[in-house]
GNAT family N-acetyltransferase (Halomonas saccharevitans), 172 residues
Amino acid sequence: MKVTDTERLTIRHFEGEDADFIVRLLNDPSFIRHIADKQVRTREDAVSYLENGPMASYRTHGYGLNLVQLKGEGTPIGMCGLVKRHELEGPDLGYAFLPEFCGQGYAFEAAEAVLEQGMAEHALDSVLAVTLPDNTRSNRLLNTLGFSAKWSVNLYGAWNNLYEYRRSNDIP
């Protein structure tokens, strides 16, 4: 199911057929360093990750992490979406991109579209985001998107910056 399009990207729900991409993305050293080692090493691990993570979230919450593809050619380049973690009060923005697609504005483009679509469709007033303090790219991206730093939160054994994006009062 397509979530939204941007000028250069198509953002859609994950499917089981995306397992090979998930193995590649989740084993990238940058993903492991800045997000977590999800222990997804095989195609079977990836199918389980998709079924018990993003696909379960679509059924439970109506949103989750989505596949981000280059529009037209369909090349998968990353993931971006809203996530509902038990540890946080509200949904948070999650994203990760293969290193060869970083620094080209794709994360900003995808995150902006996901925020707009997700907040409108799910009547959200705010969205959270967490990132490690030394993840300068993610911290900069969240500031550029309009997130405000709130405080630090211990999540999965590490202290993270907690950000909040609030719907502007002039948006209906």
Remarks:
- The radius of gyration is 15 Å.
- The helical segments are 19-26, 29-34, 43-52, 54-61, 106-121, 136-145.
- Strands lie at 2-5, 9-13, 65-70, 76-83, 92-97, 126-131, 148-155, 158-166.
